[in-house]
């Protein structure tokens, strides 16, 4: 069982992720604000096995959240989920290690396979 953080500004999507992960036997915690997820990684990051991170979010976007979380924990595996990614973010993430990608929309089976790949990084 892994402990995963779900960071998505859409509460319904964050909830669905958590339900899917829990049914698959994982511990899941969701955040609809990237700042809250970053704060959690700062205080309790050692308990986190991976992060599922949406790229398009208000206030702090996924690329900035990724940078801040990685500054706190360089080895943290991240599953990036997005329907569209800006070129700048795409180039920055392409240079990173321990990153998996999942394009929206996706099916439950695809999501769980991406989570497994992320945890294996």
Q: What this model shows, in words?
A:
With 121 residues, this protein is of the alpha/beta class. The protein has one domain (3-119): Rossmann fold. The protein is 45% helix and 21% strand. The protein contains 5 helices and 5 strands. The chain has helices at residues 11-23, 34-44, 62-72, 87-94, 108-119, and strands at residues 3-7, 27-31, 50-54, 78-82, 99-103. Strands 2-1-3-4-5 form a 5-stranded parallel sheet, sandwiched between helices. The protein starts with a strand and ends with a helix. The model has no long low-confidence stretch (mean pLDDT 91).
Protein topology:
Blueprint: E1 3-7, H1 11-23, E2 27-31, H2 34-44, E3 50-54, H3 62-72, E4 78-82, H4 87-94, E5 99-103, H5 108-119
Parallel strand pairs: 1-2, 1-3, 3-4, 4-5
Helix pairs in contact: 2-3
Count of helical regions: 5
What's the main sheet like? 5 strands, parallel
Tell me the helix content: 40-55%
CATH superfamily: Response regulator
Any descriptors?
121 residues, alpha/beta, Rossmann fold, 5-stranded parallel sheet, 5 strands, 45% helix
């Amino acid at each position: 069982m892994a402990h995963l953080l779900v960071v998505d500004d859409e509460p319904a999507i964050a909830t669905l992720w958590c339900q899917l992960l829990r049914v698959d036997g994982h511990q899941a915690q969701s955040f609809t604000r990237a700042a809250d997820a970053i704060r959690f990684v700062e205080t309790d990051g050692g308990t986190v096995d991976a992060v599922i991170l949406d790229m398009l979010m208000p206030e702090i976007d996924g690329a900035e959240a990724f940078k801040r979380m990685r500054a706190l924990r360089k080895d943290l595996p991240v599953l990036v989920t997005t329907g569209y990614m800006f070129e700048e973010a795409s180039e920055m993430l392409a240079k990173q290690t321990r990153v998996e990608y999942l394009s929206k929309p996706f099916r439950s089976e695809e999501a769980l396979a991406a989570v497994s790949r992320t945890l294996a990084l």
